[in-house]
Amino acid sequence: MKNVNYLSIAGEVIQQIKSKGAFLVAKSKDDVKINVMTIGWAAIGYLWRKPIMTVMVRESRFTHHIIEKASSFTVSIPTDDLKEALNFCGTKSGRDVDKFKECNLTIIPAQKVDTPIINILGFHYECKIVCKSEINPNFLCKEYKEDVYADNDYHIFYFGEIVACYKTIG
């Protein structure tokens, strides 16, 4: 593993998330549940004097119930082509299938948080949850409400302090 500056790879990481997706892993504090899902949106920046990654999870998603009981999350951005696994993890629910098993994904311990990372070549962000925020539909522009939330299934924002950022190399 090679530690990297979270901002030095932010453009590349956001482009990957935008075009192909990334794996978000959440694990409940009680170690009972763990899940992986594909994310297509995220933000990387600097808030509260800290490096922050923000991910969004809809309340209807299985991952939402897990991340609500979590103190951290990890995001793994593959450098290899994992299109099938990303597609599967983005279209199937952990309520119904074991996505790790179905996609032959394994997890390994993270360096600084309790939530593991996906054991793949790529970039990894370890994040300690510092804030959660619901979208208030009254403050969202009409265009986004109609385009993204026509079914009223809103996201919760999870702000994670980036406590480790690194690249796994083969």
Automatic annotation (TrEMBL):
GO molecular-function term, one example from the UniProt record: FMN binding
Organism whose genome encodes this protein: marine sediment metagenome
Protein name in the entry: Flavin reductase like domain-containing protein
Taxonomic classification: unclassified sequences, metagenomes, ecological metagenomes
One Pfam family cited in the UniProt record for this chain: Flavin_Reduct
Family classification: Belongs to the flavoredoxin family.
InterPro entries associated with the record: Flavin_Rdtase-like_dom, Flavoredoxin, Split_barrel_FMN-bd
Domain Flavin reductase like: residue ranges: 30-165
